[in-house]
Amino acid sequence: MLNNKVAIVTGGTRGIGYAVVKKYLENRASVVLCGSRQETADRAVAQLKAEHPDWPVEGIAPDLTDYASVKAAFDGVRERYGRIDILVNNAGVSSSEPLSDYTPELFRRVMALNVDAVFYCVRAVYDAMAAQGAGCILNTSSMVSRYGQPKGVAYPASKAAINGMTLSLARELGPQGIRVNAVAPGITNTDMMQKVPQEVIAPLISQIPLRRIGEPEDLAGAFLFLASDAASYITGEILHVAGQARS
After folding, report:
1. Which among 7, 10, 103, 111 would be 20 to 30 A from 78, CA to CA?
2. How far apart are CA 173 and CA 138, in angstroms?
3. Is 147 exposed, middle or buried (0-12, 13-18, 19+ CB in 10 A)?
4. Considering 81, 120, 126, 155, which one is annotated as catalytic?
5. Residue 155 appears among annotated catalytic residues
6. pLDDT tens across 46-59, in order?
7. Tens digit of pLDDT for each residue in 93-107?
């Protein structure tokens, strides 16, 4: 579905991002995954190469909260591959502190990676996609952008900002052939969720019609569809992948 496409996936070393990288490689894309450190990016690449030595994947580790670092790294991708077809903005951080313990520094740290970095990455690939007259940008949102959460105010605020950015960029960049969409996961079995006690997860599962939490592979399928030509007439959508209908 992605034959000969070149994709950059941030937060691609584990969880949903890693599943997206693997899914894209299975569908014949060349993938550059971004990790928080070069060693974690290299480890993810080694794991993928252990499965399929011929997979065209490499790892980089720009500081996503620094535009100059992002621009230099993404320009390097364009130089090596000749184009950038897909950008997946998946890197992010959560928090669960109550407002009484929430510091301005913590709020700024969450927004820096979850919002500022998304803008930096989009801006860094824009010139390549505009020159091609085609491109696909996919942002990771969350169901909490719609419903909020009991604690950790910056995370749902950041994901609501991602929704607004997605909708606005879709309108602005559509005439240039660049599609912009977001995927909003529900409760998903990632490292973050594995730290949550089972007694907290069980009541949540009982409210999901499919009676299970999502797996990273469930989300990867949505990212694959939206990046493919099968979604060539879809832009400005926030696709909820949560095992239930939106209310």
Report:
1. 111
2. 13
3. exposed
4. 155
5. yes
6. 999 999 999 999 99
7. 988 899 999 999 999
